[in-house]
Amino acid sequence: MALRARCPETVISIWGRHHIRLEEVMKRGLADSIHTDPAAAVADVDLVVLSTPIDTMMELAASIATHLAPDTVVTDAGSVKASVVAHLEPLLGKKFVGAHPMAGSERAGLAAARSDLFEGAPCLLTPTEATDAHALERGRAFWISLGMRLTELSPADHDRLVARISHLPHAVAFALVNLVADSLPEGAGLLAGGSFRDATRVAASDPGLWTGILSENHHEVAAALRETSQLLNALALQLEEEKNDSVLDFLTRAKEHRDSLPLPSPEETL
User: Fold this and answer.
1) Distance (Å, whole) CA 83 – CA 95
2) What is the pLDDT of residues 167-210, one digit of tens each?
């Protein structure tokens, strides 16, 4: 939708498993052709964007690898990069440019799509020594055309960073909802105010999708959860020992850092 709005002259070919959903895309004028055959979808195209769950992406890349034109560039929108790059570079070679657009919401499907979804949002690119310079420039140009701000880092650095600024918040949101459901009387969540709703918004995300993401980045997410647990245990001890100055310092440091972040509204970014 963003590509159609910002680059209306671009010819868009879309692959999907469900023809009914593909027909809705066509009805809304968001594609020039639709396909349930991956090979047909990538025939004679300049750029391929893999935007599926991680486990599906591996299979999909294998199915199109031998059908790509020699100069076709492939990028992706996966939330994990080390495992994706490790699997896709051998299949796609120097033409693959790993990417992670940091935009979206807990809602899914065409009904949740917006033409301004990527406007001003970060996009993390993860080129390696094997990435072709021309392919990287094409990948950069594509994500910039959607209005995104680019940052480049290694796949490993990406996974460590994103584990803490995206994957951990999702895991904590799921945990907080389960805590309330398991430890309080039924219906207690209905009494919650805005702080609970804001902190748990992303817990409405697709559990299957997030099981895959957390599993693919399990080393970094597990480490981030343990780091968070240490912070929470320290805060609990400070409260039990009535060390109010330490509690105040803990909260003040967090507020100052949060206030310094030019974060978008809750609906704009995962």
Assistant:
1) 17
2) 999 999 999 999 999 999 988 888 888 999 999 999 999 999 99
Helix (H, G, I), strand (E, B) or coil at 198: helix
pLDDT in tens, 107-129: 666 766 777 889 999 999 999 99
Mean per-residue pLDDT, 2-26: 89
pLDDT for the residue numbered 105: 64
Residue with tokens 């591996």: 58
Confidence of residue 264 (pLDDT cuts 50, 70, 90): low
Residues 151, 122 contacting (CB under 8 angstroms): yes
How many CA within 13 A on the CB side of residue 39? Answer: 4
Q: 158-259 belongs to which CATH class?
A: mainly alpha
Backbone angles phi, psi at 2, to 5 degrees: -65, -40
Class of domain 2-153: alpha beta
Domain with CATH 1.10.3660.10 in the chain: 158-259
Residue 101 tokens read as 């657009």
CATH 3.40.50.720 domain residues, the chain: 2-153
d(CA 162, CA 154): 12
Residue with tokens 């059908």: 67
Contact 70, 96 (CB under 8 A): no
In one-letter notation, the amino acid at residue 166 is: S
Report which of 201, 196, 147 is spatially closest to residue 170, judged by C-alpha positions. Answer: 201
